[in-house]
Amino acid sequence: MLAQRRIPFTPLSLLLLLSTVCYSSIGGSHAFALPPRAQHHHLQHTSNTRISSESPVALSSRRASHTAHTEGNLTYVHNSNICETTEGVGQLSGYINVEDDSAFWFWFFESRNNPEKDPFTLWLNGGPGCTSMIGLFTEHGPCTMNEDQESTSINPYSWNNFTNILYLDQPFGAGYSTGVKVETSEDAAKYVWQFFQVLWTSGRFSQFKDRQFILATESFGAHFGPVFIKYFNEQNKRIDNDELDAEKVVVSHLMINDGKHDPLLQFQSLIDFVADAPGYGKLADDDVIDKITDALPDCADALQECESRRKTDKSDDLCNEAIIECVRNIYVPAIGDMNPDFLLIKDNHRDNFTDTHYGHFVRLDDVQRSIGADANSPNKLTFDQCDSSVKARFSKAGGTARSGLPDLADLVNSGMSVLIWAGDADLKANWLGVHDSMIQMEWTYNQTFKYTPLTNLTLGTETVAKYKIVDNLTFAVVHGAGHALAAYKPNVAQMIFSQFAANVPLHSDYRFLP
After folding, report:
1. Where is this region: Disordered (predicted)?
2. Domains of the chain (ranges plus CATH)?
């Protein structure tokens, strides 16, 4: 039996529990994808990287430049030689200014494969309020941090092996983005729409507006993704009806890993998960399981009342109180002294790969100047992985207590290609809850999904995941992966996501070849 530890809490700390993320060292067998390269970028090193004249972003016969350029509301540095040092691969980083004196920070990397034809991917971390540099440096970006915390190495499993990818800090307050105090996913969507209006009309990015567009996200991104696409589609319809003069933002694919789709379903499934986690067994003592089981009815009543009064004046406070109650009485005792991001870490030990690795790096003055992150952000000396004030505003507005399934259902029913997946060692958004969310979601084939068995996904001789495909929805659970899925199993994550990006039905032993 695992000993359970009392965790002191306040209402704010309870709300932040579900957004705090710890990361493991990236280990395991790297059985496929590009071979590792021995390239390193040190702060004192100036690369003579050649930039392809055919590259949409990189400039011909130019060396890495740290000079900031301005095109209207777009301010950027091109080819900083930070992180991505692959020869001939371009990158841009900087700010896009939108209304209300607000500015989004972004970092864009060309595809290493075929930037002129490969898809465009937008990556958003969750939180709400977490920087997308989590995804960039610890999950699937072009580089990983070295132990000296001041240099990087090429990531052979980067998702820019097959897609052009943009990492965006949003909402304002996350990472290096700064501006108005957004409180809801619906409001955040309006500002991200403005971001793309600047992006698509710029000479640097206009060529991507007609590409296959993948919105990829995780955790609370289960709310961001569907809400953003819903708003984009509404605006696109206004453009079609000549009611709005703007650039369309057409998302064709949605990917959510380890999503917090529905809080009630996640709390319910957490009880089952700690009682008998598939592949891991019993995670909590009987007295803890009894305690959280007894607490479930009150939690369920509170969350259901929150949903039923979704449009009323008092619903935000009611929802905020509901999530506090459920976290206090179910989540905290269920987790005990385990690491909620990765249950294979025991006795409250932290992962070796933590914020201190990339966090130190992105706070360095030389790095900030090189990537153009010191121009607009007042937070450059206090860069936080996840901004607690953003999380608190969304929670106070009730957003963390409401279900994101209705908006996701609309997209699935529309025929959009959707990939929903999770790590089987994630306690924060356990995969049983994610799977049950797809069953409870009101879409055409939810009952077919319920009764479709999971199939083994293999890589070589190893079973690395299980999956099912029902119409336009693909579901997968990756063995040995935690909340930030790609950080733990980068080779498996690349195998799965590269098939999704290539519109290939998920299957075993798929090997991405550049």
Report:
1. 43-64
2. 20-286+349-514 (3.40.50.1820)
Parallel, antiparallel, or unpaired: how do β-strands 455-459 and 40-42 relate?
unpaired
CA dist 243 → 231, 235, 246, 248, 479 (Å): 15, 9, 10, 13, 48
64-67-70 Cα angle (round to 5):
120
Tens-place pLDDT, residues 290-312: 999 999 999 999 999 998 876 55
CA dihedral 291, 294, 300, 301 (to 10 degrees): -130
Cα separations in angstroms, 360 against 34, 166, 354, 363? 28, 22, 10, 5
Distance CA 194, CA 101 (A): 13
219 is catalytic: yes
Task: Assess whether pLDDT exceeds 50 at residue 22.
Answer: no
Local structure of 427: helix, strand or coil: coil
**Which has the higher per-residue pLDDT, 510 or 214?**
214
Mean pLDDT computed over every residue of the chain: 85
Q: Is 483 a catalytic residue?
A: yes
Amino acid at 323: I
* DSSP-H helix ranges across 341-489: 355-363, 365-371, 388-396, 405-413, 431-440, 446-451, 485-488
Query: What pLDDT is attached to residue 378?
Result: 60
- pLDDT reported for residue 94: 94
Peptide bond into 490 cis (omega under 30): no
Q: Which distant-in-sequence residues (6+ apart) come within 8 Å of 504 by Cβ?
A: 510
pLDDT (mean) for 253-269: 98
35-49, 384-398, 439-453: which range is least confident on average? 35-49
> 492 with 481: CB under 8 angstroms?
yes
The position carrying tokens 């930070």 is 82
Q: Would residue 290 show up in a list of annotated catalytic residues for this protein?
A: no
- In a 10 Å sphere around its CB, with 0-12 CB exposed, 13-18 middle and 19+ buried, how is residue 388 labelled? middle
Beta bridge partners of 470: 473
Catalytic-role residue among 219, 315, 417, 498: 219
pLDDT for residue 56: 40
Catalytic residue among 78, 357, 435, 483: 483
Q: Computed over its alpha carbons, how large is the radius of gyration of the chain?
A: 22
Q: Give the Cα separation of 359 and 156 in Å (integer).
A: 21
What ranges make up the beta strands (E) of 18-128?
40-42, 69-71, 74-78, 91-98, 102-109, 120-124
Task: Supply the pTM of this predicted model.
Answer: 0.86
Cβ–Cβ under 8 Å, residues 456 and 508: yes
Catalytic residue chosen out of the listed positions 169, 387, 426, 436: 426
* Strands ordered across the beta sheet of 143-145: 40-42, 151-154, 143-145
Classify residue 209 as exposed, middle or buried by CB count within 10 Å of its CB (0-12, 13-18, 19+): middle
